[in-house]
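Box 3.1. Reading complex inputs
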Amino acid sequence: MDLLFIFEWLDTSFLADMSKAYGGVFAVVQMVHLVSLALLGGAVLITDLRLLGLVLRDVPSEVVTSNMDRWFSLALIIMAVSGVFMSSAVAIKLYYNEMFWAKMIGLSVGALFVYFIKRPLLAHPHETINVWALRLLAISSIVIWFTVAASGRWIGFS
Amino acid sequence: MLNEWLLNFARWLDSFAWSTAIHESFYLYAWIESTHVLAIMVFLGMLFIIDLRILGLAFAQVPAARIAERLDKPMMIGFAVMVITGLLLFFAIPVRSTQSVWFRIKVVLLIAAGINAFLFRNKMKEVRRDGREEVEPSKRLRLGAGTSLFLWMGVVMTGRAIAYDWFDCHKDLSYAMYWVAGCVDEMALVE
């Protein structure tokens, strides 16, 4: 399926008019994107390091997970919205950028992983879940999100 | 005077072969910068959650002092990596960084955030010494957490802005702006 039409539409959209005309607005949105990345990183790491038993061992992992879930989702939403805005400035260029697609694949895998595997599984009492399953979940999560972040940075280098 | 001294220092760093080598190596520079961003995720991520807890916006059912204490070590690991990679990035491009308005604001914010963190840590130590870990954070601690959030967000934002050349020395700027950015040669030309 060729997705070029989405990028062509984005390239001529109202968002692109704004992101191309106002460099300052683009920069501020990019900064918000980066700050949200930090929040996302914190939520991911605290949840996963707790599942691995490396931090907050005296706080039940269910409590850690439920507290971090909403901050994770908030960060992801802000990143997605700011990300679409940033993409609009260089839509066609991004379509031909391999690193952008690597990031999009990573992001899709990450979102599916969180909302269809990790959260449904962690909805059960954690002590009833196999400890190796928990560890695998945590390590996969850290690897996925740090890869998404790194590949995102590399869009700018490639 | 200070501007001249800073520029001389930057030029001295720039004279090292390693400085040029990092700058000119595509992969080395890109990886150092990527590691810097990933370290921000670790350090700032932990810091945000600690501050949000002090403000009562996360982990409301867990004592704030416990969250701050338990997340301190991973936060400081992120901080160490962030500082090392940050220094390397500065070392790779010392002159332009020294003459960047954004970098200068970032350093000022970093110093302010450092002082705030020092006061915050002392206050937390007091809380522990007095056995008040279970008590909700005082107004002063909450103010410290809010200040920390804003200062560190400012550090990241101005750090990102260094990449933009809006106020670089080669641009046509006012004398005041040249002074703020430390554009010593351009100031001499105006004079």
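In summary: Chain A has a mean pLDDT of 95.
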